[in-house]
Design brief:
Length: about 375
């Protein structure tokens, strides 16, 4: 059996990860996990409660809802956060032992609570960069402590190009090869705007791949579509979770970023994959139709738009999305994923993919090759 690399796992941050690893000059901006008087743990910033810090169980999303309902009813938490958090959720060594137990060789590891606060802190770029920098320093430790079997994914905002360049240099030195970024405009400019070319050049020069991943990041839709209330995850985001990534990639392709930076690679993780074949059809079709209608193409490209996608982009595909069928409809660009230990994920990924007709011997791209491509292999 060949190497198996899970393209989507998460590491829980420790209670004081941010304050322990943040630039000392920004300690007042450090995120923290703190308990309230009813035993509920919260992700907090400057004393403000941002989100409940619940402990997920793979395959049991309803338990998260029940935990929130207990809080709304004024009850005490049914569990203590620290006592309920398995070591493999946060400890790199314990996670690698879990990998051995389930038959996985390596895994990409995204932050856990890092998915919850980027948009909330967007009013303060210094706070954003300070807390992202704290996680990024931890990434280097994770890589070493796991014997480089875990590939931690850094967290970047592209709003400060000089900071991005500095972070990418440090990450490259630490052996970190992936960085989560928002598929959203940068202070009102599209990702392909020429002002951002220095950023894409830095990613290529440092051998680091930007990755789009589900998170509470700057939105590409007006806030009016999301409604109001206590919902952490608006239903609009769940239904259309793939659209921001598709929009960002359309911009990068049609406005020539991959043309200008042929070494640039992009990952799309936990944003579903069933949309990809139709998107590729619409990408080429829309490019051709508008060129005829307008009398000229939107951009001068040497290749078909879909070819840039299939060469430069790799997409995680859950077993229930039938990646074998998707590969037949498009090409071999999908990656296996578990989303462990999140509630919408699974603790038995290999069995899940086997039931979907996918095995490592016949689907080397799905189980390792396409992840290795993003890692620079």
């Amino acid at each position: 059996m060949g190497t198996i690399i899970d393209s989507d796992q998460h590491l829980y941050e420790s209670r004081d990860l941010w304050i322990d690893h943040i630039d000392p000059r920004r300690r007042d901006d450090a995120l923290q996990l703190r308990d309230d008087d009813r035993g509920f743990a919260w992700l907090t910033w400057r004393g403000e409660r941002l989100e409940l810090a619940d402990v997920h169980r793979p395959g049991d999303t309803a338990s998260c809802g029940a935990h929130r309902e207990r809080y709304r009813r004024g009850e005490t938490s049914e569990y203590g956060y620290d006592e309920s958090l398995p070591a493999e959720y946060w400890d790199p060594g314990a996670r690698t032992r879990w990998l051995d137990a389930v038959g996985i060789d390596e895994a990409l590891c995204f932050p856990n609570f890092g998915l919850l606060w980027e948009r909330r802190l967007s009013g303060s770029v210094p706070a954003l960069t300070a807390n992202m920098g704290a996680w990024n320093r931890w990434c280097g430790i994770v890589a070493v402590e796991s014997g480089h079997r875990l590939h931690p994914v850094a967290h970047l905002t592209l709003r400060d190009p000089s900071w991005v360049e500095e972070q990418l240099a440090q990450l490259a030195t630490a052996g970190v090869r992936l960085a989560m970024v928002a598929p959203a405009p940068i202070d009102g400019r599209a990702l392909a705007h020429p002002d951002h070319d220095r950023i894409w050049a830095a990613f290529v020069d440092r051998g680091i791949t930007p990755v789009f991943h589900v998170a509470d990041q700057p939105r590409v839709f007006d806030d009016c579509w999301f409604g109001e209330g206590e919902s952490t995850l608006p239903v609009v985001e769940s239904v259309l979770l793939w659209v921001p990534a598709a929009l960002a990639l359309t911009d990068l392709i049609l406005n020539g970023v991959f043309e200008r930076f042929p070494g640039l690679r992009v990952g799309v993780v936990e944003l579903s994959s069933v949309w990809v074949p139709q998107f590729l059809l619409m990408l080429d079709g829309g490019y051709d139709f508008t060129a005829k209608f307008n009398g000229r193409a939107a951009a001068s490209l040497r290749r078909r738009p879909s070819e840039y996608f299939t060469e430069h982009v790799r997409v995680s595909s859950f077993s229930y999305e039938n990646p074998a069928r998707l590969t037949a409809q498009s090409t071999d660009l999908y990656m296996c994923c578990s989303d462990y230990p999140h509630s919408e994920g699974t603790a038995t990924p290999l069995a899940d993919y086997s039931r979907a007709g996918c095995d490592p011997e016949s689907r080397a791209g799905l189980f390792s090759g396409n992840v290795e491509y993003l890692l620079g292999g």
